[in-house]
């Protein structure tokens, strides 16, 4: 079992920055990839970014490339998402997820463990 707890969400103005954190506990040694997804009201869940446990491989969704950076601090078992140049369309609940698979990391079905989510609201 892997437990995930997100933090760092909040209200920010357009153009601003925010950093999300996700603390992982439990059988983290069995985790191959960790990721961030988001879901806005009335919309489907969207892939944001993924990173392997060693931090050497990353993948980003098209809508956040060049603005968001995913990183991982193994010593603290913590995943981060640094968000810059935020737009109103980035408003959503952001979820941390962990996968024990090596394929399909851009899809939600690859992730068996999820956090409770943290709200990010960008005001225009």
Note down, in words, how this protein is organized.
The structure is a single chain. This protein has strands at residues 2-7, 10-13, 18-26, 33-39, 46-52, 58-60, 68-73, 78-83, 92-99, 113-114, 118-123. It is globular, with a radius of gyration of 13 Å. The mean pLDDT is 94. Strands 2, 4, 5, 6, 9, 10 and 11 form a seven-stranded mixed sheet that branches. It has 124 residues and is mainly beta. Strand 7 (68-73) and strand 8 (78-83) form a beta hairpin. It has no helices and eleven strands.
Q: What's the layout of helices and strands?
A:
Layout: E1 2-7, E2 10-13, E3 18-26, E4 33-39, E5 46-52, E6 58-60, E7 68-73, E8 78-83, E9 92-99, E10 113-114, E11 118-123
Parallel strand pairs: 2-11
Antiparallel strand pairs: 1-3, 3-8, 4-5, 4-9, 5-6, 7-8, 9-10, 9-11
Defining traits:
single chain; 124 residues; mainly beta; seven-stranded mixed beta sheet
Fraction of residues in helices?
under 10%
Q: Which spans have pLDDT < 50 for at least 5 consecutive residues?
A: none
Radius of gyration: 13 Å
N- to C-terminal distance: 40 Å
Q: What percentage of the residues does DSSP assign to strands (E)?
A: over 45%
Q: Spell the H/E element sequence.
A: EEEEEEEEEEE
**Mean pLDDT, rounded to whole units?**
94
Secondary-structure-based class equals mainly beta
């Amino acid at each position: 079992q892997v437990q995930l707890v997100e933090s760092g969400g909040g209200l920010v103005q357009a153009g601003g920055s925010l950093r999300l954190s996700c603390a992982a506990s439990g059988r983290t040694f069995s985790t191959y990839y960790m990721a961030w997804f988001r879901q806005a009201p009335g919309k489907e869940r969207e892939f944001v970014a993924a990173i392997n446990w060693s931090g050497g491989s990353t993948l980003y969704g098209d809508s956040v490339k060049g603005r968001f950076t995913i990183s991982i601090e193994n010593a603290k078992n913590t995943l981060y998402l640094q968000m810059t140049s935020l737009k109103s369309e980035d408003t959503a609940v952001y979820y941390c997820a962990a996968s024990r698979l090596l394929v399909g990391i851009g899809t939600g079905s690859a992730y068996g463990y999820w956090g409770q989510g943290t709200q990010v609201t960008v005001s225009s």
